[in-house]
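Recap quiz, item 2
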Amino acid sequence: MKSKPSLIDVAKRAKVAVSTVSRTISGKGAIGQETQESVRRAMRELGYQPNRVAQRLRSPTNAGGLIGLIIPNIQNPFFADLARGVEDAAYAQGHAVFLCNYDEDPEKQQLYLQVLQGESVAGVIIPPLNEDDPEIERLVRAGLPIVCVDRSLKNCPIDKVEVDNRRGAFEAVRHLIEKGHRRVGVITGPAHSSTGRDRLAGYRDAHAAAGINVDEELICYGEFKEDCGRRFAAQLLDLRKPPTALFTCSNLTTIGALHVVAERKLRIPDQLALIGFDDMLLADVYTPPLTMVSQPSYDVGRCAAELLFKRMQNSKQSPTNILLSPKLIIRKSV
Amino acid sequence: MKSKPSLIDVAKRAKVAVSTVSRTISGKGAIGQETQESVRRAMRELGYQPNRVAQRLRSPTNAGGLIGLIIPNIQNPFFADLARGVEDAAYAQGHAVFLCNYDEDPEKQQLYLQVLQGESVAGVIIPPLNEDDPEIERLVRAGLPIVCVDRSLKNCPIDKVEVDNRRGAFEAVRHLIEKGHRRVGVITGPAHSSTGRDRLAGYRDAHAAAGINVDEELICYGEFKEDCGRRFAAQLLDLRKPPTALFTCSNLTTIGALHVVAERKLRIPDQLALIGFDDMLLADVYTPPLTMVSQPSYDVGRCAAELLFKRMQNSKQSPTNILLSPKLIIRKSV
DNA sequence: TTGTACGCGTTATCAC
DNA sequence: GTGATAACGCGTACAA
């Protein structure tokens, strides 16, 4: 196993100095025509490829463009789409993406934040686990370009790209109400989750706008997990005065709720209407096709990457907040 | 923006030599009790974190454990699960994963292969786009630990973890035949895809085992994309003698086929039976619940990572091939 | 236009 | 036990 050729090897072969090779590659400084050619030839012959590690060690910011993306769970289609958006935008700019999966685990998030720092990434995109995160705030102050996505940081001016959860939820629940539903059960996220809170706020807004009092017993707070969707859907349907419609606030909880629907052989929308947050693969071929609040997840990622690149170029500009609109896709489940 | 503290800063503060600090951290060599303590204190006070870039530059193999994972498409749940398996196994070993998405684009695959090399990763996990890939073969020969997953390389001894596609397809189609179907349409992958070929082979096996001649007009070769599923499902159903059952060879083609089913308001399984390769999120709550060939995608990733670690420790052992079994999950679509 | 020399933060090899 | 120092591969100021 012969080790990879370095700049020095190329220089030797082309009979020039290393700096000449370096300049030929970067295009900085003036280089003679024939010198360039012999250098390029030597590179080809040796199959030279730059050592990105050395590049970043030497000049952390400019070279070996690398950005970090830390997401809660790559198996969640929302984050997969988001990641793809980041990736595409980065690729277009010649940047590579270091993708980390923190599994909603604070320690792992911490660890990856450190790893990325240790890797001298030029910037980081992250949906922070908590609204207060001293470590992220420290990094921001230390000058590391960071863009928050999906979720955000309280009391910290920072670039961010979010989805208008409140509005999305509002439109969904308004639609339910317009269709005559007066008891709409909602399964939202935990109280400390801003997305969960915002979606619940939209739920309340829609009720307020229609002059309907919200029956607090119709509100369930749970993790954004399938299991919670299942449990709370069952709980809601077992109420003495059960809801006639369900608003599930994430793709996973929607699936959990659909399990209950299947088990109890409920007919949608006759016996139970349903709207879920997050569109999913089979939603439009489900029987009946599911009405959903579709998030522009890919765009969130793309915008975040673009925002990050701007920040990387100009670290002094004041933070930009972008709010993307979700879209109510009306199908047949209401 | 003050730059991050380095070993040197720690050494200064603790009033020792850098080598002493380095040894204290790595635990190699004997260090005096009090020296250790003062070093650790200095590290804490400065908030020192190792520079992984410098570590890898200095000792590419041992330090800053980093492995690369290059996948075709992170939005495909199969690969998302696989990635998660890799990630979990790597995390357990203290390795970080550099995840790249090549979008089934040969150039991008090439690029990321180079990036990973440039990053001095300790090893790479990849489902190769093509069965012949000179570049990957070159890297293997150059001594870079590489594990192939899902797909593989022809004529190249290499560690790999694959799913028994042929057997999975065989069981699915046998099930269809046992239920009385004699005309089973199949939508498989392109001819150059080994997974597509293997699944088609299983389809043929099942027919042969039952003594049924395969009508070649029931076989469609397409990309593993939703669009193809749609087009070919329609084409098959428009045959003069249409199939009574469909076997779709990937999650995306299954979805495409289900679109056609929805458009034509076909009742499953009465008017059309269906089995798809790859289980998916809503499959079990679909009406009717969909019978699927479930791949152990997470395990593929986990096994691959473990194989890679073994290879990284012992580069001389002969290649290991692991074949994982898919599982036919019988629900109600047949 | 080209070459020399230094430093980025580490680890490893010496000598003490 | 500890300290000084040479690499790792690259970019760049400075000299030629």
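The first helix of chain B runs from residue 7 to 14.
Residues 6-8, 18-19, 22-23, 26, 28, 50-51, 53-59, 62-63 of chain B lie near DNA strand C (CB under 10 Å from a C1').
End of item.
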